[in-house]
Amino acid sequence: MRPTPDRVRETLFNWLGQTLYGRTCLDLFAGSGAMGFEAASRGAAQVVMIEKNPAVFRALQDNLKKLGCSEVFIQGQDGLEFALRDAKRYDVIFLDPPFQGDYLPRLLEILPQRLNENGVLYVESGTAIDVAPPWQVLKSGRAGKVHYQLLSVSAGCL
Description:
By secondary structure, the protein is an alpha/beta fold. It has a single domain (about 5-155), classed as Rossmann fold. The protein has helices spanning about 5-15, 35-40, 55-65, 80-85, 105-110; strands at about 25-30, 45-50, 70-75, 90-95, 115-125, 135-145, 145-155. It has a 7-stranded mixed β-sheet with strand order 3-2-1-4-5-7-6, sandwiched between helices. A hairpin with a 2-residue loop joins β6 and β7 (about 145-155). The protein is globular. The chain starts with 5 loop residues before the first helix and ends in a 5-residue tail after the last strand.
């Protein structure tokens, strides 16, 4: 597990605006849950967290009980499998898959259909990401070995 650095998370939520009031969020590969819980604390109407690792999943459930976030839902499964089967649309998707895996290309194909109009995708990776249409880069940055981008789907491509 590799949590998103605090400074990167702060930058992301500055990009998104200080509130996520009423938005629906998906945190694929939730890990520590920092992104999803932060979204909930900023007023998201619903946050779905996906985590495959059983020990990490249990820790997320424990933290959810402690925090009492009724708008957060946690599922124990692989992020790619969830994205392939889930038919919902979200306003914000957090995507921070294992750097050594080959998840990104497949997920970048699937996720345009999972975003609401004006929805955004936050992507974190170990290398710079070149995105192809329908994606467009809204913002990007780098902190050490972490490359991160905020993407949207070009108008008319949803």
